[in-house]
Batch of 2 targets.
Target 1
Amino acid sequence: MRIAMASTGNSLEAKIDTSFGRCAWFVIYDTSNGGIEFIPNPTKGVEDHAGQSAVEFIKERNVSKIISGDFGLKIKPMLDSLNIQMIVVNDNTLTIHHIIQLLKKEES
Amino acid sequence: MARIKRPRKILNPPSIKGFKPYGSDADLRSADPVTVLFEEYEALRLSDYDRLNHHQASIMMGVSRPTFTRIYAAALQKIAIAFVEGRKIAIEGGKVYFDSEWHHCNACGCYFNQPDKNIANPLCPLCGSEKISDYEFSGSPQYSRFSDGKCKCPECEYEQAHQPGLPCKAQACPQCGHAMIRAGAPRRNHKTKQR
């Protein structure tokens, strides 16, 4: 299973980003082999419809869950149709490393 | 040109893909199935299974009351055809999107939704905790907390807080009346836009 995360930077110490469409980087974590991939968000600086473009971008990477600090209003119907689960992290001081540890523990 | 159809909101996809008739010469006749759309299935479910009236059901599906009645009438018509002519019913297609409920994890404090509704009691996807409560919210949880985006006027540099769900372009600058843009976004080249 592949899980996407919205991140503020391209390191494991980066924090979870509080927006999905305009986050700085996407982190894709593969639970089957533990692979971690950092992708810069192409929709970071766009004027409008950042969320929709980000969904288009991320759905081609076959993720089944997305973790972010928050999602925009128009994102949920799109992700529901694509059967992608949204997880909103309440504590926005959590780092990517911390979340991956949580996911590893949850799986085992 | 006809107006574009509004997507219909569906809570659950049906648990089955359709129905098959049985009886004397059912196999001969059932070759050509009647296609019931997802939205027609949902209309039938809301109206006759959940016993809502058309007005309430139309709000649930995000369409107008007359549109809901038309969808419902189409569902009955198709089911009647299948019953009378002894044909199969296939439930598929239609312009729909699925909706899901929000849950809240009391252990780690995260919010999540569950698009796969076959799981009755979901575990927290982050920490695996069983302490889950339902969360009532339309849209996204904790929305106002992080709306740090700003709308900016490209003419007079006036800035104001971005309203979630409202495009910056739809906002007029209170000082000069110019359409606002997202602060930080590169200004569009008007020449390339016209081309």
Note: Helices of chain B lie at 26-29, 38-49, 54-61, 65-85, 190-194.
Target 2
Amino acid sequence: MDETTKQKLLDVMKSKLNRQLLYYLDVCAKCGACKDACHIYRATGKAELVPSHRADLLRRLYRRHFTSAGRVFPSLYEATDLSDQLLDEMYQAAFTCTGCRRCMVYCPFGIDLTWVIGVEKAMLSAVGKVPEELNMLADAAIEKGNSIDLYREIMQDQIRSLEPELRELTGMPDATIPMGKKGARVLYVALAGTGSILPPAVIFNLAGEDWTLSEFEAANYGYFLGDTARAARIAERIVNEAKELGVEEVVLTECGHAYRVMKHLDEVWSKQKFPFKVLSVFEPWARYLKEGRVKVLRPIAEPATYHDPCQLGRNGGIYEEPREVVKAICTDFRDMTPNREKNWCCGGGGGLVAQTDLEEFRADTGLVKAEQVRATGARIAATPCENCRLQLALLNERYHLGVEVVAVTDLLVRAVAPGALRKPEQEPRETAREQEASA
Amino acid sequence: MHALAYWITGPGVYLAVGVFALGLGYRLYQWRRMAASPMRLGIFPKPPPGAKVLRIVADTLAFPQLAEVNPSLWVAAIVFHVALLGVFVGHLHLLGRFPGQLEEMMTANASLVGGTMGVLWALAALYLLIRRFKTPYKEISTPEDYLLLLLILGAVVMGDHLRFFGHVDVGVYQEYIRSLYAFRPELPAALATSSVKWSFVVHILLANLLLIYLPFSKLVHFIGAFFTNGIRRG
């Protein structure tokens, strides 16, 4: 490794050293409790995949370069200098972690290993050592923000083509999908595919909401790269749009990390206070049901379970609203064990789903989740996050779970839309990621 | 050999206490001078406003989450730390006479739990040490982890030896401590001529090393855990 690269990596590391990080690096006792909380270790039993060990790679560098004890007695801490080998190990460690933070729930010290791993990701990002697929998706999103005019027409055509189906489903001849509507109360941010546009449009129309569809997609691949600068630029597109339209609420689609980024992270990254509220789509859904603005016409009798996505649940704080929705429409609801902040990660988070070379790894490490789903005896597995759905679909196939993996809003449409008389075909819709990849 | 015993039990103790205090102060300074992330990075659900401090203290002292995910490690860790506390309180008795009722309580405490705590501590430390030699703990451990456990185990075993085989009266240890207070450290004759003199010297040596190393080791978790648990509940 040449000196310039070395210096660059150390500079990034130095810029990321804050109080939290020092606590985490100094306090971890390497007790290994995190391994029992991690689905990846549980499924593989590989020592290098123990969460604390993933973070230990950074700790070695920290000892070597930023502590006097580590400089004087490097071998005591296995302190090491930067090398290509260390960087390779870091890459393997950082980009195979789903960032679910389940280990933080169970750590006796409450150490956020994802935070430490995030610093490793930031360093790797700085020298371009990142999964190419994530990199391209992040750049494409920023590029779209720069040249939205080129995309606008294509997108509008796409949206218009959805409206006949929307009218059929809602039974409302004037149902629309408004875009760029100034002064709308709600800005709804979907994913890139049409899959997260039509079903919410049905609900918004049925509820008589004053809404408009965002021109941008909620997914943020900069965040998965640990590149906060790029992540903030991706989020900025939506923030600017919401400000221009003057909306009261920005409602994020059923996407875990997108909600977390907008609700909990971006205000700090971009050093501003949003003039609008950030909500997850489940908050209006639960409210409409409660207020009777949306009525359950056909309750679903098949046993149904709900998977808490990590970014929406333990990292985002949305547990009850999606459950309220599922319980309102499914007569046989079965919660997973454990659930909420203790729920097992599906194995697809942290951008892992977008890395095609990790498919086998994801199928293997999803074992714990698969068993958990099977134990509920449910035939329907509803979950909000696109990553979770893709991953659960993979596990469904691999472990023959015999469940239908479905978005909560899709399920809601089935139960409340007057036009949705028969169960929609089981053909998987084009996923957001495939759409983005082909864009 | 008399000189060696003197340097370990005399100036060595001052050095250890000094390095411990300054080192720990420096560690705290290093932590607190860094900017804290303005993000609230806690796990949801957040505790109700009034309960936050209580949860942080409970998390730090009892770490109930560990009991759920790794019961055997939790038992070992609880035994280890309760014994540590017991031994710590027991040692306070050596610092001098306590006023009134308290002195009687300290004496009663020492005879009741003193020996038990020392043995439990040694067993827990041994368990944690042996555990480190198994996969995957072996792979995730660094020499620091073994060194600390060896220092603790050594000091505790020596302490147990003093207790069970020494037959040295508590007053003798108090006399030694008084000599330290007066900056005229010396081993009282009863101890210097006792058969356990070298257990005592090694006990003090290992305790000194532990105190010196502590601020630069992962043992800073005894303070840091309050902060990290605070972030989780934040």
Note: Residues 90 and 110 of chain B are 6 Å apart (CA to CA).
